Amino acid sequence: MRENIFYEIYHALYGFYGPQFWWPAETQLEVIVGAILTQNTAWKNVEKAISNLKRHSVLSVETLSEIDEGELAAMIRPSGYYNLKAGRLKNFIVFLADNYALSLPDMLKQNAARLREQLLGVKGLGEETVDSILLYAAGKPVFVVDTYTRRIFSRHGLVEPGDSYRNIQSKFMKNLKSEIKLYNEYHALIVSHAKTMCTKQPRCKECPLRSLFKIKKGE
DNA sequence: CACCAGGCAAGTA
DNA sequence: TACTTGCATGGT
What we know:
The protein is mainly α. It is built from twelve helices and no strands. The longest helix is centred in the middle third of the chain and has 19 residues, at 82-100. The structure holds a DNA duplex.
């Protein structure tokens, strides 16, 4: 009895890259801030921005709620789209104040489906950002879909290129047990794979997925 | 020099 | 509904 392909890929990636220890952050707030700052942005630039926030001691709910948006924008400048993202961070803090009295623990205790809907209502938080918060900050069993997931899995014919976010997400969640650790590692492994192998050396001999697929022509 | 990176919202047809 | 565009820095 052969396990399904979603598990096979997971085990192949895990065996090759090992545990990823995600999310790279010290606190739950740092996960949330990082999730917003990394939107269409290299993580290395996000690290610089977060480092600035720590250096100025503004990586707390209270200080973020009080800091001037322009000053905040200046600090996160290295992460790009800094005016936009300063506004998005503020939008989140205002949401937290209005709905959870600025209590991050209270927010993270909320029912996953309800919290997802609430966060999607915050301007600047889309599906990937929200699901990253749910999984990596709140510890909810929610699978995170990103551009790498789309690229790799559509290339291998497991999802359609035009599939909606929710559609792709449900394919993973139907084929995998609802386990936080599994979802955590899987998404992180996809990112690691995409960064280290997939884009740089497509179909190279060392690819851990090589034996699992007959790669479609054209790429 | 061009291109991309752990997206999202708003505008257009 | 399905495209297109603006947002912006820093690395390759």
